[in-house]
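Let us work through a complete example step by step.
Step 1: write down the sequence.
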Amino acid sequence: MSCRTFGIALGLVLPAALGVWVTPLVSSTSLSPLVSSGPLSVLAPRTAEASVSVAVTLEQLVESSAFVVVARAEEQRSQWEEIGGSRRIVTYTRLSVGQTVTGEPGKDVWVRTLGGVVDRVGQQVSGEATLKTGTESLLFLRRASGGMVVVSAMAQGHFPLVRKADGEVRLGSSPDVGEVLERPGPSIAARELLVGQPLGEAVKAIQVARKAVDAKR
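Step 2: predict the structure and record it as tokens.
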């Protein structure tokens, strides 16, 4: 049996505060089992090429975000939606907020990400945040058109929590950030500052950046 896969380049412009052009690649797959063994089947979709984006700074992430939270992904649902004149699969994830870093998100937040699986069709979007139920992350979140909440700068605004053997919690990198180009000039990318940092130190840095952004207004 075969597995049909095709790649679609989808250009998205992020908020003006970020000033970054991101080209995520959408890999759509008709899920046909290649190997069947009883009730379980092995699926083998191909991997899409990496998306390309420009690294964002911590200040840019903070400025573009309505709130920053430490939250656990509790449940998900995927569906087809019209985006940019084409039908795409999107996934809505309910986040249970454990800690508010900035803003006022409320106890639960529904976040939309691109990609997912509906029936036997799956779409994977390189460069998008990958939220898995049962996992905790630090997320920069913004409000998009229609009031929906999305991850700021896609995967660059998503930092899964990594628990070390000694119990310390540090920030990890989103699984599929794609190809991230270095920023021109002396500025430092947010991922360079945050990935690998203890959660407490990262929270302090984000709150300091929030105060600095607010002071400029």
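Step 3: interpret the result. Residues 13 and 21 are 5 Å apart (CA to CA).
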